[in-house]
Amino acid sequence: MRVLVTGGAGFIGSAVVDQLIEAGHHVRVLDNLSPAAHSSAPDYLNPDAEYLWADLTDPDAVSRALVGIDTVSHQAARVGLGVDFDDVGAYVNDNDAGTAVLLGCLYRMRWQGRFALASSMVVYGEGTYVCVEHGPVRPGPRRAKDLEEGRFEPTCPECTAELTPADLDEQTPLGPRNVYAATKVHQEHLCEAFARETASALCCLRYHNVYGPRMPRDTPYAGVASIFRSAFASGRAPEVFEDGGQRRDFIHVSDVARANVAALEAAHSVGGPFNIASGEVHTIGEMADALQAGFGEGAYDPVITGRYRIGDVRHVTASPNRAQRLLGFKARINFARGMLEFATAPLRGGLTHASSSSNHTTGA
């Protein structure tokens, strides 16, 4: 295959590039090397790929990048919760407008190949829960008053009873709770509309909390694993929001890259949304402790701050069964091994206000 990887110089994108080349495919990368995320072209770039340094919102550049391309791996996105809501324009431009330009160029080419979208578990919003009396329920938006008073666990919307978290599947209704999540839902909808109009094959890969080498460090746009890893490396104690009991599924970047290769190589009839997760559930606090153990004696204990972000969700974990059944994908790197290795893995150089159309992580 001849594959275009948007955002292929970034964290996940570069791992996808490496695995596609290892599988024998020709890879072209489109990345803007945004100075907000890259001080220069990273030193880990695969020399066997072809690179086009341009912005995804430039139709001429995108059209050039698509010449001769069979399949597209769309990794480019501005990620995480950012600094505050004032980032809204940048998120919409990078994620939604960039995707629209890409799809428009493909449409004008009458392209009908396979398309893999880097989506995210944030499209679900709050996870799935079970009430003893009312069964499966979806809690409403979290209230600042409850969070201020340390009531972090959602309650049943019918009877206010305590809930038990459960794994969700791809049929769970979407409920974005922040700007980044809203743009990822919009990306999915744009891609679905394109696929219907063109009879192209689309896989929306909903990544859970991705971690591993090449993550950007010291940036408010990075995933929680990178933020904690940066703190330990700088001799600081990581600050754990809420009480550290938030449940997540942490998946290694190499597994996410394998999922992308599986989606691009799949039979034309295989498509739709896929949870790309490890199947292991751990709390944010457990992740901080695992990284501390990887750093060894002398690492500061994580600090439970009680702070919160209104756009966060309490628990979100998912079943990876559909990806295993239809794509043959199953994560290989377990939490213990992955976090131990991540404690000493190389990160990409820090930038104070980093964001990019070439990095994709999922925040906590």
pLDDT < 50 runs, ≥5 residues: 352-364
N-C termini distance: 35 Å
Helix coverage percent: 25-40%
The portion of residues forming beta strands comes to 15-25%
Overall, the morphology is globular
In short:
With about 375 residues, this protein is an alpha/beta fold.
Q: Which keywords apply here?
A:
364 residues, alpha/beta, 7-stranded parallel sheet, 3-stranded antiparallel sheet, disordered C terminus
Describe the protein.
- This protein is α/β, with parallel strands linked by helices and 364 residues long.
- Helix content is 32%, strand content 17%.
- The protein has ten helices and 16 strands.
- The protein has helices at residues 11-22, 59-65, 88-108, 144-148, 179-198, 224-233, 253-265, 284-295, 321-327, 335-342; strands at residues 2-6, 26-31, 50-53, 71-74, 114-120, 128-131, 135-137, 164-166, 201-207, 209-211, 239-240, 247-248, 250-252, 272-276, 282-283, 303-304.
- It has a seven-stranded parallel beta sheet with strand order 3-2-1-4-5-9-14, sandwiched between helices. A three-stranded antiparallel beta sheet has the order 7-6-8, with no helix packed on it.
- β6 and β7 (135-137) form a beta hairpin.
- α1 packs across α7, α6 runs parallel beside α8 (284-295) and α8 (284-295) crosses α10 (335-342).
- The longest helix is centred in the first third of the chain and has 21 residues, at 88-108.
- The radius of gyration is 20 Å and the shape is globular.
- The chain starts with a strand and ends in a 22-residue tail after the last helix.
- The model is unreliable at 352-364 (pLDDT under 50).
